[in-house]
Design brief:
Helices cover 76% and strands 0% of the residues. With 294 residues, it is mainly α. The chain has one domain. One of its GO terms (cellular component) is membrane.
């Protein structure tokens, strides 16, 4: 999951370099790259590309594509700080939805750790680079805010679908369904809004595809291998990568509030990892029910 957040940060940096291209056009090109690479890899591994659990796979692909479109719409129509903060609701939605969808309870103290990490995200966004407000204060700003929240909620559904597919499908099959559904959606959008890439745009689009493919694969493996409430909060660490890349490549500075927020994020994630490990270790040490009764 740590590698996944790093790769997603690299993808975001590429998207930032391609700010002059429509968001759905970037999704279109990266979907082409992902669908080709995934299909070739699956054929070489002798794995059926379309899998067997069609409903879950289509659900994962559809929710993933919808969540990505919502996120990009929020990025384009809200201040960056607002859009990113709203997206960080996704790990909380993931854990909460997991209570019903995959029967993984969220323990009482974990709610406090989630709140701590999200509070840190809010501080980081307040103390981060100055972002000029766009449509947040204009008519329709609330609508795009709602779209951002919807994207985070749908992301939670998507991650739970990945968890339900644990042991049922190869991770590459799950990744394959994401571009399989997002490609035709992006292609339709490109019919109405298109800007031809030039020069180094093609290199950035290629890098975006590589980062996305790696991030999706490692994220899928993480959600298949570990409890949702344990893995999902690690998404918050992606903020550190993003701030570092922004500082090095885009000269984006941040203030004391951001550092305080980083400390809160680390504290929340660290406490969650320590607590779940402790509880799981204690549960593993308990004797079977029969021996307890005896």
């Amino acid at each position: 999951m740590l590698l996944s957040t790093l790769l997603f940060a690299g993808m975001n940096a590429c998207v930032k370099q391609l700010h002059h291209l429509p968001a759905l056009e970037i999704i279109f090109f990266r979907s082409i790259f992902s669908i080709v690479v995934s299909y070739v890899a699956l054929r070489r591994l002798h794995v059926a590309p379309f899998g067997n659990n069609y409903r879950l796979l289509i659900g994962r692909g559809s929710t993933g594509a919808l969540a990505l479109i919502c996120y990009f719409l929020a990025l384009q129509n809200l201040p960056l700080a607002t859009a990113v903060t709203v997206q960080y609701l996704a790990p909380i939605f993931t854990a909460v939805l997991g209570i019903w969808l995959v029967r993984e309870p969220v323990r009482r103290w974990q709610w406090a750790f989630f709140a701590l990490s999200f509070g840190g995200v809010l501080l980081v966004q307040q103390g981060g680079p100055a972002i000029s407000a766009t449509s947040a204060a204009t008519t329709g700003g609330l609508a795009f805010l709602a779209i951002g929240v919807l994207g985070a909620f749908v992301s939670g559904l998507s991650y739970n679908a990945i968890r339900k597919l644990r042991g049922l499908e190869h991770p590459l099959v799950i990744v394959f369904y994401f571009p399989l559904i997002s490609l035709p959606l992006a292609a339709v959008a490109c019919l109405f809004q298109w800007t031809t890439p030039h020069g180094t745009d093609w290199l950035w689009l290629l890098a975006c595809g590589i980062f996305t493919q790696g991030a999706q694969l490692t994220m899928t493996r993480a959600y298949q291998m570990e409890r949702l409430s344990r893995v999902a909060p690690l998404n918050y660490l992606g903020m550190f990568y993003a701030l570092g890349l922004g500082y090095v490549f885009f000269a984006e500075a941040f203030g004391p509030l951001a550092y305080a927020g980083m400390a809160l994020v680390l504290l929340g994630v660290g406490l969650n990892a320590w607590y779940t490990h402790r509880v799981d270790a204690r549960a593993a040490a308990l004797p079977p029910a029969e021996e307890v009764v005896a």
